[in-house]
Amino acid sequence: MKHTVAPRVTKLLAADAAGIAEAAHVLQAGGLVALPTETVYGLACDATDPHAVASLYAAKGRPSFNPLIAHVPDIDAARLVGRLTPAAETLARRFWPGPLTLVVPAIESATSELARAGLSSVAIRVPAHPVAQAVLRAAGRPIAAPSANRSGHVSPTSAEHVLADLDGRIDLILDAGASAVGVESTILDCTGEVPVMLRPGGLPREVIEEALGTPLASPAPRVIAEAEAGEAPLAPGMLASHYAPAIPVRLGAREVKPGEALLTFAHAQPPGAEAAVARLDLSPSGDLVEAAANLFAHLRALDASGARGIAVVPLPRHGLGEAIADRLRRAAAPR
């Protein structure tokens, strides 16, 4: 049966105290909320909840599990999500809140692996919009918030734009009027000694370099080549490799070989399944949103099972199945 996004009743509320309180409650319950940021409306979900993140991907029709920016209200909250390097601390103190995203080593228990797309780093931003700030403080957790539009559509600058694109696919839209249209946030990789410009944006390079007292580095040619080839992104707007198990991954498996673990879907039991070293089902009910939410955790568990390899049954390719297949293909690639 073809998977579709579960229908929702989309509320349109004013961005007043009552609307902000309800938005925070919806986010805490795993729902999807569109809210204004400095530039465009963002589609928000709880970045700690893999099912909420998978629902966000499904609502957007996002083609792959790109890492999402974790939005927090201040630098203290950011320190609970990632390990700020000295350069990141300097930049955060100078430019947050504002259009600057910092990629830093993740505190991995603080956000879901699906929100980070399997990476050991996390992209963090402190938005300046007062409504976004109020929602973040009321929700009390890091919030993932890419643009509130169907993937490939024009970014929305009003609640009406969001409603036209996502009505029936999300729970709530906070209407704060038209947003100021600007470029996206600048993204810096601060995981190394010298920050690297991953994506130019609303904060100019020259201003950042003046604050640091040193030039920014540029991405390695390999990373640029991967970006142009459409490989897996290190952060929104940039590309690099994702988590892959240490043991071989065999896709489209129609039998389980001796010594293998089994990653299955919808109770599929290929020959040899009963002798698998370990077995995990991405979704016994055949729900691709649930499968996406479980993907990284299941791969890690099977990787640690003592098996000599992981057999993966054939999976659907529609909806989120395309993104799941993309991540599994990367996991199975020779290293």
Explain what you see.
The chain is an alpha/beta fold. The chain folds into two domains: 11-229, DHBP synthase (Alpha-Beta Complex); 249-332, Threonylcarbamoyl-AMP synthase, C-terminal domain (Rossmann fold), CATH 3.40.50. Helices cover 30% and strands 16% of the residues. The protein has ten helices and 14 strands. The protein has helices at residues 17-28, 50-60, 75-79, 86-95, 130-139, 159-166, 205-212, 221-229, 288-303, 321-332, and strands at 11-14, 33-36, 41-46, 70-71, 100-105, 121-125, 143-144, 172-175, 186-189, 196-199, 249-250, 260-264, 279-281, 309-312. The strands form two sheets. It has a ten-stranded mixed sheet with strand order 1-8-2-3-7-4-6-5-9-10, sandwiched between helices. Helix 1 (17-28) packs across helix 5 and helix 2 crosses helix 9. The longest helix has 16 residues, at 288-303. The chain starts with 10 loop residues before the first strand and ends with a helix.
Spans of at least 5 consecutive residues whose pLDDT stays below 50 are: 224-232, 237-242
Describe the main β-sheet briefly: 10 strands, mixed
Shape: globular
Q: What does the radius of gyration come to? A: 20 Å
Distance between the termini: 35 Å
Average residue-wise pLDDT: 88
What CATH first level of the largest domain would be assigned? Alpha Beta
The CATH architecture assignment of the largest domain turns out to be Alpha-Beta Complex
CATH topology-level fold name of the largest domain:
DHBP synthase
Give the total of beta strands: 14
Beta percentage is: 15-25%
Number of helices: 10
The secondary-structure element order is EHEEHEHHEEHEHEEEHHEEEHEH
Helical amount: 25-40%
CATH homologous superfamily title of the largest domain:
DHBP synthase
Number of spatially distinct domains: 2
Secondary-structure-derived class: alpha/beta
